[in-house]
Amino acid sequence: MKKYVAVCLCAAFLIPLYGSAETVILSGSVKHKTTSVPLDSVTIEILNESNPSERYTVQTDALGLWSYTLTSTGVEERASHPKAFSVEQNYPNPFNPSTSISFTTPAAGPVTFAVYNALGQLLDQKTVALEAGNHTVRWTGKGAAGVLFYSLAFGEHRITRKMVQLDGHGNGGLQDVVTTGGRAPSSALLKGAATVFRIISTRIFYMPDTMHVLVEGNKSIDVLLETVHERAFVIDLHNDVLEKAVIGYDISTRHTTNHSDLPRFREGGMDGQMFAVWTDPDDSVAHPYYSYTLAMIDTFNSQIRRNTSTFTQARTYDQLMQANAEGKLAGVIGVEGGHAIENDIGKLKALYDLGARYLTITWNNSIPWAVSAQDPRTSTVGLSDFGRQVIRTMDSLGMLIDVSHTGIKTIEDILATTRNPIIASHSGVRALNNNARNLSDSQIDSIAARGGVIGVVFYPAFLSSRRTATIDTVIRHIDYIRNRVGVDAIAIGADYDGMGSVPVGLEDVSKMPNLTAALLRHGYSITDVHKILGGNYLRVFKQVCK
């Protein structure tokens, strides 16, 4: 409906050079597919397919533009270099937190950069050897807010300009220089013949994209890139917003409270969401378990009826894919806590018919047929005979078994009874934080061995003994599972609107792209990120849910 690690877009250019045509200028623009915002710092690599040793590299400038001039072998170089050393006014100006400084060099040689504050104190300095061409250097905020002066020296020439830094910053300064336009004085182009060049564009957080273009003379190519997050099918295994919706919270409009609503689901690039239906086990008088579960499902359906253009229910894998094709958020019901069925197989079947596609076997409370992780008997007592009947019925229906909150012996009994992979919809790693809600190494091993998945929770209390967390804390738990059993066992089980505090950087559902970016920075491949964001869970959902 949508949808950031490395991007490879490839374009092959067929370039005929006839008659007196001695040069070809390749140029283009790169923009974000969804927003049409120009993308700077995209690396453009130009490769001659008939001469692999011939390759050139430029980068897009602040406006997302690039160009490169190719000259056929043996042709004397024409005056397409910049004619003089020049320095442009930085853009944007004033700025916060960064700005770009564009400049040209008419020949190869060293360029010295220096930035001073209004008192003449040197903030940063560097010297870089550059070829002739058009270049950009980025300044990220450093020192106090106010007027700064940047000075560039090339040969006998020095140019100084003024810029305004709007806020004070710490460890910024001059970044790497990128060449945004250049020239190859001796390319293996053949006059009167066709030469194929491959153009590879790369930028972190964006997806590969390939196109082929026939160029008859100079050509400008416009490219739209989508992010890794946008390309992924993103589904979260656990969200508790229906607890709020059932008492009047409208998910149709964007709120500044709570963690979830339809506008923020869209901002977060969410394609699917498992909506938890939970009834308080200590409130059975005011809210009888089964009837209140039905009330919450009615609320889910009423929210869909109010938002038919953006929100729909899915019960099967094909319906998830259809919702995605239509640009709608696919909502799937998950019942949290076996007490909801009130010890009645008929009610379990009725919930399935209403669209429930997983049942969390217990919440924190034990029930007559299953023991929870919080129960002192967790290691010794598991499923009753009726509990085993529940598991076999779920298998026959095509309903996922969720073991988050569930006791140690209960999980062992479930694995001995079911023929399907199981999930832990929102859990962490006990080896990293010794919390009863988290999974032991042996449980992680068992879930993975059966082809199941673990939805890594965002709840700080489960992630860290300090009860605070950041995106990096979440990734520590993801890393642990990957290193132990592989990436195929990992999913996302955030627990938004079911937790009080949130990790820094993942404050609500709109921040999900931040997790994608962090995983990519951490070295996860695009393929692995797509598995974690949804591919692994879709595999299990497709296998089990009918």
Question: Mind explaining what this structure looks like?
Answer:
With about 550 residues, the chain is an alpha/beta fold. About 25% of the residues lie in helices and about 30% in strands. The chain has 13 helices and 25 strands. It has helices spanning about 230, 240-245, 260-265, 290-305, 315-325, 345-355, 385-395, 410-415, 440-450, 460-465, 470-485, 510-520, 525-545; strands spanning about 10-15, 25-30, 45-50, 50-60, 65-70, 85, 100-105, 110-115, 120-130, 135-140, 145-155, 155-165, 175-185, 195-200, 210-215, 220-225, 235-240, 270-280, 310-315, 330-335, 355-360, 400, 425, 455, 490. The strands form five sheets. It has a seven-stranded mixed beta sheet with strand order 6-7-10-13-5-2-16, with no helix packed on it. Strand 20 (about 330-335), helix 6 and strand 21 (about 355-360) form a beta-alpha-beta unit. The longest helix has 19 residues, at about 525-545. The model is unreliable at about 1-20, about 75-80 and about 190-195 (pLDDT under 50).
